[in-house]
Amino acid sequence: xxxxxxxxxxxxxxxxxxxxxxxxxxxxxxxxxxxxxxxxxxxxxxxxxxxxxxxxxxxxxxxxxxxxxxxxxxxxxxxxxxxxxxxxxxxxxxxxxxxxxxxxxxxxxxxxxxxxxxxxxxxxxxxxxxxxxxxxxxxxxxxxxxxxxxxxxxxxxxxxxxxxxxxxxxxxxxxxxxxxxxxxxxxxxxxxxxxxxxxxxxxxxxxxxxxxxxxxxxxxxxxxxxxxxxxxxxxxxxxxxxxxxxxxxxxxxxxxxxxxxxxxxxxxxxxxxxxxxxxxxxxxxxxxxxxxxxxxxxxxxxxxxxxxxxxxxxxxxxxxxxxxxxxxxxxxxxxxxxxxxxxxxxxxxxxxxxxxxxxxxxxxxxxxxxxxxxxxxxxxxxxxxxxxxxxxxxxxxxxxxxxxxxxxxxxxxxxxxxxxxxxxxxxxxxxxxx
Amino acid sequence: xxxxxxxxxxxxxxxxxxxxxxxxxxxxxxxxxxxxxxxxxxxxxxxxxxxxxxxxxxxxxxxxxxxxxxxxxxxxxxxxxxxxxxxxxxxxxxxxxxxxxxxxxxxxxxxxxxxxxxxxxxxxxxxxxxxxxxxxxxxxxxxxxxxxxxxxxxxxxxxxxxxxxxxxxxxxxxxxxxxxxxx
Lengths: 434, 183
What we know:
By secondary structure, chain A is mainly beta. Chain A has five helices and 32 strands. Chain A has helices at residues 22-25, 55-68, 98-103, 145-161, 165-168; strands at 9-10, 27-28, 38-42, 46-47, 74-77, 108-115, 118-125, 130-137, 170-177, 180-187, 194-195, 202-208, 214-221, 224-231, 236-240, 247-252, 258-262, 269-273, 279-283, 290-295, 301-306, 313-318, 324-326, 334-339, 345-352, 355-362, 367-370, 378-383, 389-397, 399-406, 413-415, 422-428. In chain A, the strands form eight sheets. In chain A, strands 3, 4, 5, 6, 7 and 8 form a six-stranded mixed β-sheet that branches. In chain A, strands 11-10-9-32 form a four-stranded antiparallel β-sheet, with no helix packed on it. A four-stranded antiparallel β-sheet of chain A has the order 12-13-14-15, with no helix packed on it. Chain A binds chain B through residues 181, 202, 204-205, 218, 220-225, 245-246, 248-249, 261, 263, 266-268, 289-292, 305, 307, 311-312, 333, 335-336, 349, 351, 356, 377, 379-380, 423-424, and chain B through 84, 112, 119-125, 127-129, 131-132, 134-135, 152-157, 159.
């Protein structure tokens, strides 16, 4: 089923134009019900004083178009949709004829101008002719133009939805290097790709600390499993062994502790480590495999994968009451859950006859739906800090790569991560590394 | 007799001359009539026969290396599992029984038991499953008298497939325990 974006377009035009405030003109509730998208048109870049546009400004426009394509609540319109072509003579409101834009159902129009190393960008709401976002950037060079475009789009998303986690986050993921795997980071748009660990062996399951200052992960080598902690400040990683044979799926809680699956009593259970990395009591222990903890923003709810009832299924632990509830009933193999920050939604990988697919369960409405559709196998789903986007690893294109969809199952977009298989994406609130 | 004397004198002279002249190769050119032509060649001395290859005994390291190789060969057989299972099959138990004998024979060596999974499961759950597979073998060997301290477990999950192909033929090879000499 083709899924739609739930958008509520709120259009408040007050009787007197002077009293209209930008915040009231147009907002998009990316979490609310709705069936339509907001149409945005990016007009061709212009130069100063009637000059042709600079290459820099043109490139900026191309990056913005690319970025907006990642936002499913926007539809990037074409100039050919507008009667009479480009309705502007300049980049400001007084230079734009908004009528043909209104007739063509263009909700937002963006203008770009550039002179030398300066770039100006504006987005107007066509029905109110009000400026929603206006930004000027100076001393932009070719290497920084993509970053500037990302920042502008982050601002636009923030104005429209109140959220901008997609642009402000850094993805950490595991990538094949030589015969093993190391951790890499990049922006959610794949920019600033960097290898951050050089441990040898297999580095898997990265998890960001809430402040984006640390990554926890598992290192697997002939020495066994070790917990890796990579520090963003020093760019150094340390590996730590634990009693037992495993150190699987380390995950930071919102208050900075690490939950990790250890085998201290002969079977894998999830433990919280204290500041000295000593495991405390097991969380929701059982005789069976327990792995892949994921917490909401309060840290009081934890979803995890357990084989306590036979095959692997998703369970929810309420840490205040100690109650453990089963979350998944369909399918015989449900693994790798990720809990939305508000604790309402769980995304997870379900094994189907055609490979793994990503499903989402609404814990309040008790409803479940599929949000990824292959082909190949879709695994390792992970919510972004806003609980709107969901990244995952998929083998749909041959090798394993990272894709992003939304919790509504919008068409998945590939996040460029360079050559080589990439998997296990994790979102961090930290901005991309320089 | 005369001729012999002359010959003997000559030989002595030539030898003295050659000794005085060093060790260069010399040939006696002037020959008395009737004398047998003798070519005298100085060679580097090689008084002793080349030493026969000594039948020395192997060093401890070499014996150990040989034993290690032998033990690894005997431990090379893997055991295999059903999907999402860490249960030992009757065949696996037979293989492990013979491994226990090998480990008793080579009591100097410790082993690493590697647990592996096929690609169908997901990464983190497979890491736990691989540990259970290795643990199942360790417990069985322990029951047969092999000390736990001689066995280390590493789960690779689905990170190191034996056969990177798709389909049950490849997957069934990948759901395995491998046994490697550690020291």
